Amino acid sequence: MPVRVLYVDDDPALARLATKILARHDFEVMHAPSISAGLDLFSKEVFAAIVLDHHFQDGTGLHFLEAIGDKTSSAPILYVTGSSDAEIAIKALKGGAADYVIKSASDDFFPLLVSALNQALENAQLRAAKEEADRLLLTAKERAELLLSEMNHRISNSLALVSAMIRMQIQAAESEDTKVALAETQYRISAVAGVHRSLYTSDNVGSVDLHLYLDALLRDLGNTANVTDKQIRITEELQPLSSTAAKAISLGVIVTELVTNAVKYAYPLGMGEVRVKLTSTDRPTAVLSVEDDGAGYDPTAKPKGTGLGRRIIQAMATNLDATITHDIGGTAGKAGTSISVEWAP
Q: How far apart (Å, rounded) are the C-alpha atoms in residues 345 and 24?
């Protein structure tokens, strides 16, 4: 099928010759004898390419390029000029022309024109194919993000349902030890659910804003009965940081264990403060610390409870490839404990 070409040139003899020669190479030429006629045809018809002369009685081909503006990308334009002035060619290329051909009286002009047309059309097809591939890739990416967000939403809802059932079991349990064990399980589930909730409410479903996630997690912990009944205050200093979902889950579980342990054991009188800090370093790593001014903690001593919390912390630290340090005696000369976790976000 012939390829339609708009030929804008005020030389009727050359236009007739161009029509015959280009027809032999499967080009169907429509001639426009002026810039205004060319613009009129360009607005009404669809062309695969445009051959545009430079000199006209009513202006130059540069005026044509300026008039059609960014629509030049829809069809490649070959700029034809009889001048060897490089400035004209540069202006044409900057104006949107795909290529230019020097018009000459020799027999080389039309072979060069055909070759340039074929090359321009091929480049246009490659550009269109790339744009279509980019469009499909963007569509696939958006669909994948939507599906991932929906998955995180469902996981969060499912974990919330499990948490609610555990809460009901706590109310039905008669043993205090059973209630405590179930409550700790509920906190751990909430830590995991919080990550998935952060993912489906975030613009970036592949990353978790740790400071926002930990803020919500600590507020939930601060509203639990064993915190409010004991009048223990949880404070936070959280520097904005992002990380993967897997690392956020491990970090959230560690924070949950450290804070609940501090609430349970640091303040026998039921009053005090637990401080949580999140900062970045220049290594580059990040440090999460949980501090209290309470009774102190000996990591070498036998666990006061089942020891499950300590094993969970160690397992999560292994997942993070993190280093855990203990500062017995707290900070600034105060009594208490400071436990820090350093890892690469």
A: 65
- In whole angstroms, give the CA distance from residue 329 to residue 294: 9
CA atoms of 72 and 219, how far apart (whole Å): 57
Q: CA angle, 49 as apex, 48 and 50 as ends, to 5°?
A: 145
Residues linked to residue 5 through DSSP beta bridges, in sequence order: 29, 49
**Main-chain phi, psi angles of 8, to 5 degrees:** -105, 105
For every residue of 67-87, DSSP letters joined together read HHGGGGGGS-EEEEES---HH
The answer, yes or no, to whether residue 332 has pLDDT greater than 50, is no
CA separation for the pair 62, 80 (Å, rounded): 11
In angstroms, how far apart are the furthest CA atoms of the chain? 105
Specify the residue for token string 């349902």.
161
What is the pairing mode between strands 27-32 and 3-8? Answer: parallel
Name the least confident of 57-61, 75-79, 110-114, 331-335: 331-335
pTM of the model: 0.54
C-alpha 53/C-alpha 103 separation (Å) is 9
Q: What sign does the CA torsion over 148, 150, 152, 155 have?
A: negative
Contact partners, residue 74, CB within 8 Å, separation at least 6 = none
Whether the link from the prior residue into 12 is cis, omega within 30° of 0, is: no
From CA 24, how far away is CA 21, in angstroms rounded?
Answer: 5
Q: Calculate what percentage of the chain has a pLDDT beyond 90.
A: 23
Helices 210-222 and 176-201: crossing angle, nearest 10°? 150
